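Appendix B. Chain record.
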Amino acid sequence: MTYIIYAAAAFFEIAGCFAFWAWLRMGKPLWWTVPGLASLALFAWLLTLIPSEAAGRTFAAYGGIYIIASLLWLWLVEQRVPDRWDIGGALACLLGTALILFAPRG
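Structure tokens predicted for this chain:
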């Protein structure tokens, strides 16, 4: 369930940020920021559902998921294929995410 929450959070964060990007960089109307703000609020709420004793660890682990979701957005929404550097960087980040999520704590 944690991965589903992380994936949903990533979608809403990217969609919310993209709404502002579209307004400021692509000339979309100001009203695009309204669903963008709602999307960003959903993103923040979703992260509070992650079972963790520390917000910072939750946010750090989320970072790797966010990177993968961003590259999927790049490919599927912006129609730009990630290059080998994008993929390599994402794999390195996923390794870090796995360390954060699965490290033995005692």
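Further analysis of this model is presented in Appendix C.
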